[in-house]
Fold this protein.
Amino acid sequence: MIYILYIVIALLVILVALALFAPKTYEVNRSIVINKPLPEVFSYLKHIKNQDYWSPWKKRDPNMKQEFVGTDGEVGFIAKWDGNKEVGLGEQEIIKIVENDRVEARLRFFKPWKSESDAVTSVEAVDNNQTKVTWGFLGKNKVPANIFMMLYNVDKHVGKDFEEGLASLKEILEN
């Protein structure tokens, strides 16, 4: 009986140690250079509805239900979605726009699991006719979910989605 108690205590110590040392935050982003002037690229990017044309998640469920609240391209605009199991249920709200620099949004996911992240899309002039676009998101890993994040490589799994989306964005804006 005492051995079982020692095993339980040891498991609890291991879980606490893992929770203390597991990553508390995550950040994933990718960049691409688009052969268009910065103001033209930014004007397109600040409108969340345009993501329907280049977002990899919209492609995974073209029939997802969507609802929009507010004026697209302005702080406070909210895009809500309810899709299949690959895209889930959630919403994206524009929380900050720095003209010709970046758009910041809060992502709230409700299904398949509840979480919140901050998305950032930024632009930087390479020259007069080229713009570097960086798209990504960041957030906090709460205990005990942070233990799982030791096994799940967010950058590897979500990074490819950002690459796919940016490639589609480049194709749209350059054609």
